[in-house]
Structures are given as C-alpha cells and as structure tokens.
Design brief:
Helix content is about 20%, strand content about 40%. With about 170 residues, it is an alpha+beta fold. It has a single domain, classed as Alpha-D-Glucose-1,6-Bisphosphate, Chain A, domain 4 (2-Layer Sandwich), CATH 3.30.530.20. A hairpin with a 2-residue loop joins strand 3 and strand 4 (about 55-65).
C-alpha cells in the first residue's frame, strides 16, 4: 500500500509492506544500509563513513543521474532502535547530516533527506509489517517525478524489490 501527502514543497510518502520473515531479521537487514544497493536502484554506492556508536552510523550514498540532472550524493545518519515493549515497532531513522570531512563535490549535486526510515511491526514470529516513510523535498523530487504524475510504478517496484530481498 502507498500513501502520499503533499504540503508546500514537501511530499510525505508511506509505503506499507507485508513480509514473511521475523521482525528482528527485517530490522537487522534494513538497518545496515550497505545492503540497500541490492534492492534499491536509487542507491549506486553506499559506504560507512563513521560508526558513531552501536546504534548510529553515518553513510555516504551516491544516486544515479536522472535525465537533465547531475548524479546526487547524500551524507546520512542512520539510527536504529529496538522496541522497548513488544507492541512497539523496531525503528530505523534516516536524516541528512553535515560532515566537514565529506564536503560537497562538483561531480555530484548534494541532496538532503529531511526525514525517512522504517518502522517494523511484529505480526507473528515469522512475519512482520514494514512501513517505509520519507519526507521528500524538491531536491529528491526528480526521482519521484514519474510517481507524482500518477505512475507509482517506481515506488511500487522498489517496494517489491525490498520484499524480495528481505524474504
């Protein structure tokens, strides 16, 4: 299922996926962003720049060029949290950060992720519901342009690839 909400120049996106694996396994696979290239075609490269602590890492990500645009790059902080209570979800939160050791380069257009991530809810010991959220700004809009014109194929394809990867 896909939901969108537009407010000003920000588009909020929610994708809900049913997955037939234990929630802790989905959490483990989705919180390590170096796996993301295996299922998300928007991730060309992804490397860990810094392990802040056990629950937080800073990654450098590059994305392919979209027609008429330079390829994009991102410096993101990925935070992972396990649930405190059985009814709470696992959380993988993502946002852009600035790192002086990784300044913007002329080769890429530095883009920003305001707020994105996953919530993973336990349905049973062997299945879970994965919700992907993203607040998309005009900087990331070229990647979703086709979706905004009514074709949600790219988002749907990425979600299907994510499910296939997890299962």
């Amino acid at each position: 299922k896909i939901w969108t909400h537009e407010e000003g120049d920000v588009l909020s996106l929610k994708v809900e996926m049913q997955v037939k694996i234990p929630p802790h396994l989905a959490f483990s696979l989705l919180s390590d962003f170096t796996f993301r290239q295996q299922w998300d075609k928007h991730f060309l490269t992804c490397e860990v720049l810094q392990a802040v602590n056990e629950e937080e890492k800073i990654y450098y990500v590059t994305s392919p060029a979209v027609t008429g645009h330079k390829p994009r790059d991102f410096v993101i902080l990925v935070s992972q949290r396990q649930p405190c209570k059985p009814t709470e979800p696992y959380v993988v939160a993502v946002k852009s950060v600035t790192l002086t050791s990784m300044p913007p380069s002329s080769e890429y257009h530095r883009s920003e992720i305001l707020c994105a991530g996953f919530q993973i809810y336990s349905d049973s010991n062997s299945s879970c519901t994965v919700c992907y959220f993203n607040q998309v700004t005009s900087g990331v809009m070229p990647y979703l342009a086709a979706n905004l014109t009514g074709s949600s194929k790219s988002i749907e394809d990425t979600a299907l690839e994510c499910i296939k990867f997890l299962e």
